[in-house]
Specification:
346 residues, binds 2'-O-acetyl adenosine-5-diphosphoribose, zinc, Sirtuin, alpha/beta, 14% strand, two-stranded antiparallel ribbon, NAD-dep_sirtuin_deacylases
Length: 346
């Protein structure tokens, strides 16, 4: 079976071999491929119910328009968060992975690990669904951090999990418990303007050891993860499973571009590998195992959260316009009084 979604003419890796999904699968089956390095992004979790960032209209950044942010990414920029953390907390509940289940794409990674083929996963996602699907933690780098812990952005003091959950559930900003500090608490996700985990530089070298790179559900717009696929050695196959072509995919003769959903892509891949039944069974059990977090049950939708904070910000703007008008009229009255006073000649 060949991949229906290959978008470029079949390329030749060696003089006599076409590189496509089928040939990659047969190299896995005959043991030529044993180290698969994976890079994932938000598109792998959209089927779990978390919108990605940059898809037009459905992505988070377009949907934040009612908030009139200076630019959409500001919501995740440390310098913006340091003075205006409200928008982040307004949407935090709708982005929190509390009640999300892993997708079949996450489970495909767990199956690669079970088969001793998974060399490493770099994920830009903070939802932890790779781990929920069964990928061993020592095989994952959460390049953009995760929700598991939190600290004051200013003094770095820790903050209790139960209070954090409450803040997220209620959409309220949690503040540092040290009264003299007053900084907002931030989950340990990596914001723009912050450094990636130190481990990243070390783990990056694993890409050079890959004999297959699989990239799923990312626009490859954010460095440094965006540079990982380019580090793969020439001659090594790279598979992209994504709604759109991205990065330099398609430039190498060993590239296989499967444009479409991640879930369809991994099912096709599993079919080629003869793993389909095993994959579906593993996915069912991963979904059953992950319980719901009561703290996040019955929360508002993303658009409801955005509408709520937009109206609060509107109110605040009205108040500050009100203050501005009051000040202006106060100052102009004062000025009028000063101007009306006769000028003293002495
Ligand atoms: P993006 O939203 O930039 O890209 C998601 C990609 O996945 C797009 O190319 C979509 O077309 C594709 N996509 C969406 N749903 C899909 C599906 N079901 N199947 C296949 N493809 C799908 O998200 P990332 O590349 O992950 O960082 O974004 C990288 C970083 O930018 C994020 O970690 C976040 C963001 O700002 C921070 O917040 C620091």
């Amino acid at each position: 079976m060949t991949s229906k979604t290959d978008t470029k003419p079949q390329a030749m890796a060696h003089a006599d071999e076409v590189v496509n999904l089928e040939t990659v699968a047969s190299r896995i089956k005959n043991g030529q491929i044993t180290r698969v390095v994976v890079l994932t992004g938000a598109g792998i979790s959209t089927a779990a119910g978390i919108p990605d960032f940059r898809s037009p209209s459905t992505g988070l950044y377009d949907r934040l328009a009612p908030l009139n942010l200076p630019y959409p990414e500001a919501i995740f920029h440390i310098s913006y968060f340091s003075h205006t953390p409200e928008p982040f907390y307004a949407i935090a509940q709708a982005r929190h992975p509390g009640n999300l289940k892993p997708t079949i794409s996450h489970t495909f990674l767990a199956l690669l690990a079970e088969k001793n083929l998974l060399h490493f996963v770099f994920t830009q996602n903070i939802d932890g669904l790779e781990q929920d699907a069964g990928v061993p933690v020592d095989k994952i780098l959460w390049a953009h951090g995760n929700w598991k812990s939190q600290h004051c952005w200013k003094c770095k003091a820790g903050y209790p999990d139960d209070l954090m959950k409450k803040a997220i559930r209620e959409g309220e900003v949690p503040y540092c418990l040290k009264p003299e500090c007053g900084g907002a608490v931030k989950p340990d996700v990596v914001f723009f303007g912050q450094s990636l985990p130190l481990e990243f530089d070390e783990r990056e070298k694993l890409v050079l050891e890959a004999d297959l790179m699989l990239v799923m559900g990312t626009s490859l717009k954010v460095a440094p993860c965006s540079r990982l696929p380019r580090l793969v050695k020439e001659g090594t196959p790279r598979i992209l499973i994504n709604m759109e072509r991205c990065g330099d995919f398609g430039n190498r003769i060993e590239d296989v571009c499967m444009l479409g959903s991640c879930d369809d892509g991994v099912r096709k891949f599993a079919d080629e590998l003869g793993w389909r039944e095993e994959l579906e069974a593993l996915w069912q059990s991963a979904v059953e195992v992950k319980g719901d977090d009561q703290a996040f049950e019955g929360g508002s939708s993303l658009d409801e959260c955005i509408a709520k904070v937009a109206s609060q910000m509107d109110e605040r703007m009205k108040i500050s316009y009100g203050h501005k008008r009051m000040l202006e009229s106060h100052l102009s009255n004062k000025l009028a009084q000063i101007m009306a006073k006769p000028v003293s000649q002495d």
